[in-house]
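Q: Give me the 3D complex with glutamine.
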Amino acid sequence: MLLSEIRLSFHQQLAPIYPPQEADSLFFWCAEHYLLCSRQQLHQQMNKNTSPEAEKKMLAALQRLQKNEPVQYILGETDFLDLKIKVGPGVLIPRPETEYLVHSILQEIPKYEPLHIADLCTGSGCMAIALAKHLPKAKVWGTDLSVTALQIAAENARQSKVTITWVPDDLLNSRFQPEKLDLIVSNPPYVRMLEKNSMHKNVLDYEPPEALFVDDGNPLIFYKAIARFALRFLLPAGFVYLEINEYLGAEMEALFTAQGFRQVELLKDLEGKTRFLKAMHP
Ligand code: GLN
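A: Here is the predicted complex, encoded as structure tokens.
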């Protein structure tokens, strides 16, 4: 098949579930991966025949995309800042807003200090690994309840050539006792069940619900645990940087202020949504 014919198949087969622009970017995402070409090279090859192996992989990916499977799970990896991060059904796919949070943290903290950092509910390990990669003197811990997630995170750390201490730990009944910390980051579950009907099938049918959802009646349960943990283990001038539910900014601010944290600040993501909370130890 010509590459342009495969592109057309992507458009035709994905039309019922994705708008044309998204179908096109899914085509390029897969083609870059399986043909090992840049987008520009692909444009120049549109009217050339695709190798039988690459064609087979592209069409197999298309079949999975038709079932709403996220492209990142199909390819087994995604980009996170300048890193390649392996992902699979046991971990949440890193989102651009989380990437933006890490980018913002890196702009605000000193690069060559021996900081102690913990990433709670690390999942694929993307935040812990990106911080370790860009802060060469930092000592980093990553915790998660899921052993599968920690295995993927450890593989990601090896691939990115950073050393992180992975700790199996249930944040809601935490037994993790790290050295005193300069920084705590976390992107815990925060989507309320009532928000489920506004979410896409590719998220709902494939991503781990335990990494996403919280009860409507106690949506800040993980942040309450983070605040307790931070009060015990954060150094006096230490900070927490958290990804939060865009609809619960006021409640989050109130929670951390009531616990005595200083300089509690809500930050926006690139779309202008209230998406992060930064606070300093009391
Ligand atoms: N931002 C993610 C989503 O919208 C949720 C991440 C989380 O619950 N921590 O799917």
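A quick observation: The mean pLDDT is 97.
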